[in-house]
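Why should sequence recovery work at all? Because a backbone constrains its sequence more than one might expect. Tight turns favour small or flexible residues, buried strands favour hydrophobic ones, and helices have their own preferences. The token representation captures these environments compactly. In the example below, the structure is given first.
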């Protein structure tokens, strides 16, 4: 019990620090309207056969419930080594538009592949998910350029069931995460994403989540022609609406993490 209290205290401190950091990041940039993320996912949990997978579609709006400008189509396979370790290989196609000129087609598209390791920790009612991801990214811009980039991501996700000790059928839960996006070639710190939300697992198949996410992108400091430009950050708050459907009849606890 003492160890659990220590872990809970450290976790709450981390989440508060993340929220304060997120506010500080966005407060130095001009005010931007809230956006919207819609996430629909079909999952096949590993279960007894260990092999699983997922498919997901995501759409984003520059404002709340309108001004569509971005979409994702993703899918992958996973393998559960045990209840604590899951490996996966996945990929996706991404497109960014000018919401005022959708008929002109995307401003840029991206093809992405990634390798991922998830480590789960269960401490009584506190459920931790550590996610490590390495991405390979191919871009195509309107001007014909096709740059390639790598990226490393780490996400710490905390789940807290409210009315049951585990997240199974008819369980309400809280979810919080902070994710770091790192560029191996620099500038190293590229992006930070903070999320907080509430969810409900209706049965063995359907899971709904509603939350808030702040995504902040960083531009590096520069010194060119004798002029120093300090680091800048641009952040945006978004409403998140997520719906997940799980195939199969696995009744064991499976953390309702978002695959994004």
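From this structural description, the recovered sequence reads:
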């Amino acid at each position: 019990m003492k160890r659990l209290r220590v872990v809970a205290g450290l976790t709450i401190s981390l989440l508060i620090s993340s929220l304060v950091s997120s506010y500080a990041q966005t407060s130095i940039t001009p005010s931007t309207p809230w956006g919207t993320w819609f996430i629909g996912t079909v999952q096949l949990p590993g279960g007894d056969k260990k092999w699983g997978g997922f498919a997901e579609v995501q759409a984003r709006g520059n404002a709340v419930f309108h001004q569509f400008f971005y979409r994702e189509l993703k899918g992958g396979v996973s393998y559960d080594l045990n209840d604590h370790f899951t490996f996966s290989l996945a990929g996706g196609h991404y497109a960014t538009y000018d919401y005022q000129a959708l008929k002109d087609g995307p401003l840029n598209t991206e093809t992405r592949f990634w390798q991922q390791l998830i480590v789960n920790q269960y401490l009584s009612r506190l459920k931790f998910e550590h996610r490590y991801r390495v991405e390979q990214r191919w871009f195509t811009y309107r001007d014909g350029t096709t740059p390639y980039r790598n990226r490393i991501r780490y996400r710490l996700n905390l789940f807290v069931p409210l009315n049951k000790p585990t997240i199974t059928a008819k369980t309400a839960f809280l979810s919080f995460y902070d994710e770091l996006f790192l560029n191996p070639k620099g500038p190293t710190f590229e992006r930070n994403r903070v999320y907080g939300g509430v969810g409900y697992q209706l049965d063995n198949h359907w899971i709904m989540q509603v939350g808030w996410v702040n995504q902040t992108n960083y531009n590096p400091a520069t010194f060119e022609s004798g002029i120093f430009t300090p680091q800048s950050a641009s952040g945006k708050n978004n409403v998140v609406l997520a719906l997940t459907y799980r195939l199969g009849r696995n009744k064991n606890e499976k953390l309702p993490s978002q695959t994004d």
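A few observations help interpret the result. Residues 3-8, 18-29 have pLDDT under 50 and may be disordered.
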